[in-house]
């Protein structure tokens, strides 16, 4: 008996499955119930080359008859007498199965077809084995069970479900359905909770003022009833609720967070027994209602709709107007025309109808692949073509896009410079030179772009980019890719511009993003920060188009995928970056770059002008908590944060005080009304000091107004007063004490300033004065100063999937650091506590092991350097990835030791003077960063860091300032 959707007071929906007469296993682990509206990737099988489908054939499908409202649909076209179709999903693959796993249980509706189901399993030694085939035929839902071959798996755990395979008995075309793919266990694995929680998609987010009511689906994994309390915590609220479920039961729970006046993404955690079941977001934002931009730079996002099932593609297209982008980068490959003259035109039109109806234009990314009738036998490159047939292929595409006004760009081959086939460069130039006139004839409105090449990476084919850009007559636009952070993004753009030379064709970025990773909210905020910086810079330097990669994360899809570049999580929850992109589009649409604004030494600011007003995009070069700055304006200024919340700043006698922020923000005022103002208060020579230090220094006070003023300054518990003539500055000796508990980095000394003239106060505000709190590195032999990393504040979780346990505390990963210096060099000692050590990688890849990375920037124009240290089976291993001047990358030849006893690994190394790039003496300042990699189970799952800037793409601006201190200093 099934009782479906029992409703309790409008909030609780339970589906209770009664125990049957047959004995039930102790546990079932759901691999996919398809409620996240996801896709299973095509993974082999019998293809009909003329099949009119051009998207993933298997994925979520709404079905009101199913207990949770969703199932999977498999669309097929079997041209032969019999056929097999394979499909897989990375989230399924990531679930590691132990010796207690019995088999796969799933619900199937064969829809009248004669089918058999089997699964390919990947064992711990890498071998793929296939289970027995289980028949399923007839019409309507029924349950099948695919047992695991225990005798083949024995001793080869853990293993994974690599793909599900469906066999059809004869020529057939249509669709079948399946659902609730689970694994039966004799005993629930110890690392899995008895309860699961996943968000239910109802809408992408909530507007300000709307009632925020996220809903979650809870499932009992056990064959016995479940009763326990869960907590939901986020947005300043916490809910505790008792969940009671029958064996393998499920229920829906809704939580009322009330309404919010401000736009903001709120991290939310669902937990049971103190352990997270789900980490996600509830987002409050004002959506756009379609494209608002009327001219370049075009704002774009990529969705790879051809890799989604059709229903998921339709869902994603519904998000495009909310985001407000102008275009999408749409995917295409040569398999759209596997038979000459038989383009899958109907399928392509259906594929792109949802985004076109959402109001966007298309950049067509012909990513690659030449069909068999075009490519030569035994080709020397992926483009070693029969050129007459290549022309025929491109003519079909050009005619098709010539009748599609929404198609605006055609990008030919994804990252072509990374292919090192023998004749690739010559073949690519030939191909591009042949397709260019074909498109000009049949689709003149479509601009031809170079393939999005990747500059400044070791894997680039020598001279590919240079030879390509030397042929501007065969393309309209230069396209390149860059996923690095903002400084590296600027660096690679300069490289492209330099190679292209003066008078170059327009430059666009067709693939650019930054990972958010999966767990720590600060990494999601950092992604939003990078998005604003990179897109702002792109518009400022005159790019014609910018594409963010991608709309939704896809780590749950392709086997081995790990990317979290996107704007929306796999659970259909917008990240902070989605909100940031929507607001940036509102702020910068239909504006032109009008120059840099020098607002403060710690800030970078780009000014964009519209018809009547100006918007200045502002961010901190390095984080400076509490920073304020003063600008000149005689009219109110609108300050809008990264998500779209606006405050009006009223001037005081032509001066406006602005609070900075950790994330970029916008300042809007009428044209020419907002001007820079030098700091009213500053330390004369700058101030860099260590925690607990008392410093004698001088504060410079500037008169910003055209009249004589009286001042009163409060700083360090004292008051200073006096007079300032017009245009005068005053130097005031002060004593400053740095708090002993002050965190290292940019900070401020609190100060209050009142300025008055003969008529009374003209300006009054708190104006903290910036300084840098340094790390002190004592001379060798002086008392040691240690740094302890053992809290979540220093931790960065890189993944959050159920199969990878989260950080469990100090014994899981923590460290104690100490630094010193002598004439022999800079000495570093790092003691890492970690219950598991992995050191399988060698050479330049040892950073993937349990290891430490150390970066050093001399801050004097010389090269910064980076080193990695690890313990492998051959002993201590080192690598100098980014060498200092005069050295080459490779093994580090300096003093180094790495030892391990129990769960403690001790790293000790010395960077000798000739590698430092600065003088070893008292008072020398430079920047460092240290990163600890934790590779539990061989997967780089988390890091701990002492200053940022090393993980992922490098940014020495995030390194921490340190200062050498002599043991003789009093």
Helix run count: 11
Beta-strand proportion: 35-45%
Radius of gyration: 31 Å
Q: Tell how many strands the DSSP assignment holds.
A: 61
Distance between the termini: 83 Å
Class from secondary-structure proportions:
mainly beta
- Mean pLDDT over the full residue set: 92
Descriptive notes:
- The protein has 970 residues and is mainly beta.
- 13% of the residues lie in helices and 40% in strands.
- The chain is built from 11 helices and 61 strands.
- Strands 3, 4, 5, 6, 7, 8, 9, 10, 11, 12, 13 and 14 form a 12-stranded antiparallel beta sheet that branches. Strands 26-25-24-23-22-29-28-27 form an 8-stranded parallel beta sheet.
- A hairpin with a 2-residue loop joins β52 (814-822) and β53.
- The longest helix has 20 residues, at 521-540.
- The N and C termini lie far apart (83 Å).
- Mean pLDDT is 92; it is low at 1-23.
What attributes does this structure have?
970 residues, 11 helices, disordered N terminus, 8-stranded parallel β-sheet
In short:
By secondary structure, the protein is mainly beta.
Describe the SSE topology.
Elements: E1 2-8, E2 12-17, E3 27-32, E4 39-45, E5 58-62, E6 70-78, E7 83-88, H1 90-94, E8 101-109, E9 115-122, E10 128-130, E11 134-136, E12 142-147, H2 150-153, E13 160-168, E14 172-185, E15 195-199, E16 215-220, E17 226-234, E18 237-245, E19 250-254, E20 264-272, E21 275-284, E22 298-302, H3 310-323, E23 327-333, H4 345-357, E24 361-368, H5 387-402, E25 407-412, H6 424-442, E26 447-449, H7 464-469, E27 478-481, H8 486-500, E28 507-512, H9 521-540, E29 545-549, H10 576-588, E30 592-596, E31 603-609, E32 613-620, E33 628-632, E34 637-641, E35 646-649, E36 655-659, E37 665-670, E38 675-676, E39 681-683, E40 688-689, E41 694-702, E42 709-715, E43 718-724, E44 729-737, E45 745-749, E46 751-757, E47 760-766, E48 769-773, E49 775-778, E50 786-789, E51 795-797, E52 814-822, E53 825-833, E54 851-857, E55 865-872, E56 875-882, E57 896-901, E58 904-911, H11 913-916, E59 925-934, E60 942-946, E61 960-965
Parallel strand pairs: 22-23, 22-29, 23-24, 24-25, 25-26, 27-28, 28-29, 40-48, 49-61
Antiparallel strand pairs: 1-2, 2-19, 3-14, 4-5, 4-7, 5-6, 6-14, 7-13, 8-12, 8-14, 9-10, 9-11, 9-13, 15-16, 16-19, 17-18, 17-20, 20-21, 30-31, 31-32, 32-37, 33-36, 33-38, 34-35, 34-37, 39-41, 41-44, 42-43, 42-46, 45-48, 46-47, 50-52, 51-60, 52-53, 53-58, 54-55, 54-59, 55-56, 57-58, 59-60, ...
Helix pairs in contact: 5-6, 9-10
């Amino acid at each position: 008996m099934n009782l479906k959707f029992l409703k309790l007071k409008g909030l609780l929906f339970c589906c209770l499955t009664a125990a049957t007469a047959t004995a039930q296993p102790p546990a079932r682990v759901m691999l996919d119930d398809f409620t996240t509206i996801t896709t299973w990737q095509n993974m082999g099988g019998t293809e009909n080359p003329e099949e009119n489908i051009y998207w993933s054939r298997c994925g979520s499908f709404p079905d009101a008859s199913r207990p949770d409202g969703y199932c999977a649909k498999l669309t097929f076209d079997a041209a032969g007498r019999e056929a097999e179709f394979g499909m897989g999903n990375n989230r399924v693959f990531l679930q590691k199965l132990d010796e207690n796993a019995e088999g796969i249980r799933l619900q199937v509706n064969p829809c009248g077809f004669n089918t058999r189901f089997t699964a390919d399993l990947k064992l711990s030694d890498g071998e793929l084995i296939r289970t027995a085939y289980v028949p399923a035929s007839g019409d309507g839902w029924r349950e099948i069970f695919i047992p695991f071959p225990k005798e083949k798996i024995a001793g080869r755990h853990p293993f994974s479900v690599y793909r599900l395979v469906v066999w059809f008995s004869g020529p057939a075309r249509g669709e079948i359905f399946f659902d609730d793919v689970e694994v039966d266990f004799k005993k629930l694995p110890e690392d899995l909770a008895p309860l699961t929680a996943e968000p239910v998609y109802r809408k992408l987010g909530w507007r300000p003022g709307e009632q925020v009511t996220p809903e979650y689906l809870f499932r009992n994994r056990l064959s016995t009833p479940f009763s326990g309390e869960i907590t939901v915590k986020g947005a300043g609220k916490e809910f505790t609720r008792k969940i009671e479920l029958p064996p393998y039961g499920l229920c829906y729970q809704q939580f009322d967070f009330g309404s919010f006046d401000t736009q903001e993404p709120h991290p939310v955690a669902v937990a049971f027994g103190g352990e997270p079941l789900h980490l996600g977001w509830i987002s409050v934002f004002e959506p756009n209602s379609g494209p608002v931009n009327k001219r370049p730079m075009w704002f774009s996002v990529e969705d790879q709709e051809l890799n989604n099932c059709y229903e998921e593609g339709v869902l994603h297209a519904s998000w495009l107007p909310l985001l407000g982008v102008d275009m999408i980068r749409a995917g295409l490959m040569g398999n759209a025309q596997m038979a000459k003259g038989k383009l899958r035109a109907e399928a392509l039109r259906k594929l792109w109808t949802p985004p076109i109806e959402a109001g966007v234009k298309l950049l067509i990314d012909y990513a690659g692949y030449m069909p068999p009738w075009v490519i030569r036998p035994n080709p020397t490159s992926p483009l070693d073509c029969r050129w007459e047939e290549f022309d025929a292929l491109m003519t079909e595409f050009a005619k098709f896009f010539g009748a599609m006004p929404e198609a605006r760009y055609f990008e030919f081959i994804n990252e072509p410079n990374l292919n090192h086939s023998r004749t690739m460069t010559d073949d690519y130039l030939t191909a591009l030179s042949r397709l260019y006139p074909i498109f000009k004839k049949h689709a003149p409105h479509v601009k031809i772009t170079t393939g999005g090449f990747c500059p400044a990476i070791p894997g680039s084919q020598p001279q590919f980019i240079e030879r390509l850009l030397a042929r501007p007559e065969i393309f309209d636009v230069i396209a390149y890719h860059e996923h690095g952070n903002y400084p590296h993004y600027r660096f690679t753009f300069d490289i492209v511009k330099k190679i292209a030379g003066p008078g170059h064709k327009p430059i666009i970025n067709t693939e650019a993003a930054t990972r958010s990773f999966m767990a720590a909210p600060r990494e999601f905020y950092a992604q939003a920060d990078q998005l604003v910086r990179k897109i702002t810079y792109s518009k400022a330097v005159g790019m014609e188009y910018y594409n963010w990669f991608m709309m939704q994360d896809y780590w749950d899809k392709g086997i081995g995928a790990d990317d979290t570049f996107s704007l929306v999580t796999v659970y259909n929850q917008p990240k902070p970056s989605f909100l940031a992109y929507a607001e940036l589009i509102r702020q910068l649409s239909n504006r032109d770059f009008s120059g840099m604004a020098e607002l403060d030494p710690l800030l970078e600011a780009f000014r964009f002008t519209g018809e009547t007003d100006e918007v200045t995009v502002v961010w901190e070069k390095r984080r400076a908590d509490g920073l304020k700055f003063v600008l000149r304006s005689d009219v109110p200024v609108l300050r809008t944060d990264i998500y779209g919340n606006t405050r009006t700043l009223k001037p005081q006698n032509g001066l406006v005080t602005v609070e900075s922020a950790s994330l970029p923000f916008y300042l809007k005022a009428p044209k020419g009304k907002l001007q820079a103002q030098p700091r009213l208060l500053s330390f004369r020579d700058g101030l860099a000091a260590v925690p607990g230090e008392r410093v004698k220094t001088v504060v410079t006070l500037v008169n910003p107004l055209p009249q004589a003023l009286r001042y009163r300054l409060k700083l360090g518990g004292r008051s200073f007063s006096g007079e300032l003539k017009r245009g005068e500055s005053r130097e005031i000796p002060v004593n400053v004490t740095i708090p002993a508990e002050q965190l290292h980095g940019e900070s401020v000394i609190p100060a209050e300033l009142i300025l008055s003239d003969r008529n009374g106060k003209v300006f009054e505000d708190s104006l903290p004065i910036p300084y840098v709190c340094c790390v002190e590195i004592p001379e060798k032999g002086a008392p040691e100063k240690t740094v302890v990393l053992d809290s979540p504040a220093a931790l960065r979780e890189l993944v959050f999937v159920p199969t990878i346990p989260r950080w469990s505390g100090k014994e899981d990963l923590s460290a104690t650091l100490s630094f010193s210096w002598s004439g022999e060099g800079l000495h570093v000692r790092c003691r890492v506590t970690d219950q598991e050590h992995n050191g399988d990688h060698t050479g330049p890849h040892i950073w993937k092991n349990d290891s430490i990375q150390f970066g050093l920037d001399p801050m004097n124009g010389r090269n910064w350097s980076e080193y990695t240290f690890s313990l492998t089976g051959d002993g201590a291993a080192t690598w100098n990835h980014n060498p200092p001047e005069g050295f080459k990358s490779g093994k580090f030849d300096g003093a180094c030791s790495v030892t391990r006893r129990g769960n403690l690994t001790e790293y000790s190394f010395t960077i000798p003077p000739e590698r430092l790039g600065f003088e070893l003496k008292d008072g020398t300042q430079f920047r460092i960063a240290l990163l600890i990699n934790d590779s539990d189970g061989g997967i780089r799952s988390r890091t701990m860091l002492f200053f940022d800037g090393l993980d992922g793409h490098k940014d020495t601006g995030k390194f921490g300032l340190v200062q050498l201190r002599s043991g003789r200093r009093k």
